[in-house]
Batch of 2 targets.
Target 1
Amino acid sequence: MKKQFLNLGKQPIANRFIYKDQIENEFLFDLKVAFDEETKLVTQVEYVDPPLMFNKNYTYRGSMSNTMQKHFKKLSNSLNTNPNFKILEIGSNDGVFIKNWPTSQAIAVEPCGNFAKETQNLGYTTYPEFWTTKLSDKIKANHGHQDIIFAANCICHIPDLDETFKAVESLLNKNGVFIFEDPSLAEVINNTSYDQIYDEHPHVFSVIALDNILKRNGLQVVKVDNLSVHGGSNRIYAQKLGTKVDSSVEENKSYERILGLDKFETFERFAEKVEQSKKDLIRILTQCKKENKKVISYGATSKSTTIFNYCGITPELIDYITDTTPEKQGKLSPGTHIPIITPEEGFNESVDYAYLGAWNFIKEISKKESKYLDRGGKFITHVPTVKIV
Ligand code: JHZ
């Protein structure tokens, strides 16, 4: 049974950056978050229909940061040890992971038509569809069982996890491995990073919950890597039931039990911290404006859509957002309609404070913007607590 613990209010589609004339018809939904007593899954009360989010107009490009380019290259090099391995990627986006593999070895699945075309153009067989048991059967008939099924920041986007895992189990070789990365619930709780919750993230995973749901679908968690990317993620290795389990699984589960991720009360306390974080962020931004400082936002992220809409942050508090993604530039942020411009145009001498929408890339950004910091420019973040850095 799902028990609600957090209400993040009316929210738009997090990655649907819009033009002025689209404001009137903007889609809004109630973003409410719950804990499922049976599986221990943190999940939304009601899910947004996937085609509303993932379609030919999707704007998020995984390859927009050097950190992620390097991250996927390193992982591919470590996995690609046997040239006969067959690998399939679910949610291949703009090819940031798959491009590290030969086209003869790898298959892509990507429901966003614009990005499916990109991996097709790179030479990869690409299925422009959502991940379902029907698609998995079709791929099995066309290409046979797979040795590795990979997904990065994709599985937590899919409402029906039972269907997803059944589809993986039936396509995986007997000794095959399903590897997937998603934000870690432990990190979200530790950092009050409630902005990891938006329409595209119907669930935030603990290892405990994942193992429960995988097990009822013929799979189990066999190893966990804790990663620093995207504000703290877990890389889960799952195999068919009966396979040897690495000690990292129990280590992660017992840490999660210490944090109370298997108990509803933990999330009630988290909701109180979220409320406080909102108050603190509004206070800091209002103070900057009172002092006539210029405040912008760095990175038009999905995460900042949750923050801006939950906290009611409009162009009155943040003048504009800079972002390197061509598909976002010249548009308005979803819901609170802050203009997005190029960094060349907007990240200049006039900026006093930049709220880090892309706080997860703070290291990469601080290195890149060292001149800004040297001349006294400051960043504002809410992670792990609201502060000026
Ligand atoms: P970033 C997306 O979330 C959506 P978002 C998705 N649901 C998901 O799960 C995660 O990614 C993984 C820009 N940028 O990665 C590029 C700069 O402008 O935090 C991006 O638009 N300058 C699939 O949207 C944004 O910031 C820079 O120097 O929250 C970062 O988005 C850098 C490094 C980034 O994901």
Target 2
Amino acid sequence: MQIVILKNSVEVAEYGANIFIEQLQAKPDSVLGLATGSTPMSLYRQLINANQAGEVSFVKVKSFNLDEYLGLDGSHPQSYRYFMNEQLFDHIDIDKSQTFVPPGDAQDPIEACERYENQIIEAGGIDIQLLGIGRNGHIGFNEPSSGLMSRTRVKTLTKATIDDNARFFSEGEYQPHLSITMGIGTILDAKKVVLLATGDNKADAIKATVEGALSASCPASALQLHRNAVLVLDEAAASKLSDCDFYRHIEVENQKLRASLAKS
Ligand code: GLP
């Protein structure tokens, strides 16, 4: 895993957005894996700006979102489809018919999960997957104890996740306890993975992800198995890591290497 430690959430969003911009410039028909939550919101704003400034186009892009609440259809303001439309798709030149979010209103959710996996395969697989992380180390809605090779499926949410996400729902509003989520195995199949984490409430999860054992107790630790995963952290999210100096040193060496390659 590449660990990038930056000063604050602004720098994290900029760094993450640049990875996506470079990906789209190199491969305009990229298949993007996208995420919801508050963490990626400013990255999406930067992608919108880059698109409106003509730096990148999404015309040939396909996208697959990580997860959706089971029981909410896409017109529900708390659904992840609604979030994606509002935060990104409505403001860029993407063909919305090529944006896929697991169907929260599926009559047959088990069949819908299989179909979602097939749609990803038919698209040629995910080139780059964006991730946030839950306080308990979840990625997508893969809660602790999720199988490390799991595929898209229905997942029950933990009380901790329901409580964390309650802030998006108004008082008395129905909040689903089930979701459809890409599995950890689905995420690991992406060619590149970019995980963003900001704030000290993510510090324990990041510690377990980077320096803990590979374990279903911390689903994000499965990224230790990935060949091309980058974790972009602010200082607060990185604050419990023991080896920060080493990670910073690696980044300096990486930059030197990139600079010398660019010259040659
Ligand atoms: C939800 C999403 C995750 C996201 C997590 C953290 O549970 N299913 O994909 O990473 O929230 O969200 P936030 O970025 O708001 O902390």
